[in-house]
Amino acid sequence: MQTLTPTETTFYQDTQVLVTQSRYVTNSKTYAMRNISSVHIFEIIKSKKLPIAMIVIGVLMLLADSARVFGFLLLATGIALLFIIKNEYAVRISTNSGEANSLVSKDQRYIQNIVNALNEAIIHRG
After folding, report:
1. Is the CB of residue 51 less than 8 Å from the CB of residue 34?
2. pTM score over 0.85
3. Where are the domains of the chain?
């Protein structure tokens, strides 16, 4: 923790986020810590219906001689998409105006670090 001014303690800072005892600043928004009642990590689950459908159709096309090449391509693309699609994680804050996802990333550890810093700031605030 660093001190910016004699009255403001920094709990977390990087190029996109700043968490102090009195404010939480993300890319384009600033939240007053006194308005944040709780914070937690929220997982945004991405749909995998399209890649699964591509795999099923690709397997069915492999059974037909005339569509075997296209079936293989569809199957390979579906499998690749299944591994590429990743869930996202958000810093979800509760304020007097409701809940909001203030920052979203695919890196769960990064989001967890910000949530931890926000929790420390809330505790420090008292």
Report:
1. no
2. no
3. 2-45+86-125, 49-84
